[in-house]
Amino acid sequence: MSDDHTPTSNPPADPPISSELEAALEQLHPIAAQIVSQLNHDDSDPTKEPYTMDPEVLALLGPGIEQYIGDEDFESVMRTMNAVVDAFKTKLQSPQLAASIQQILEQPHIKKAWTDLRLEQDPEKVQQTAREFAQFSHTDQVKKAPTGSEGKPKGAKSLDELGFPRRL
To answer: Which helix (H) or strand (E) holds 41?
Structure first.
């Protein structure tokens, strides 16, 4: 034992990364690996979330995503970020971290860029995104508006039935 009373500190342990997670990361945009590398993992207290991220790191995530707006990788980044949010919310039992990341994705300029990109895409790709979202949100059907030849859905009212004046 030394006479030196300086405390020793152990470096934080890297979060455990399973082979399943490594395989999933290979299929996602590299931003997912950057997020994983910044995670704090502590499952010693079952009352707390096992995964957290320092607020300073979370603050950098928005600008990190913004740099891809208008870039060909933006769609991949956003799909990856949505997958990351889903993983934290469900499989990794860290809903507060998921909500913090979701808040960043819902910043007006990021959300607008994502919406604009999806509107530019061809109809088949939009339908594929809708199917993926339905699967992501655990709903069994993709909602769509009726076309001109289809009748209104059950319970829907026409504008005439609402009594709006024809002219203002």
So the answer is: strand 40-41
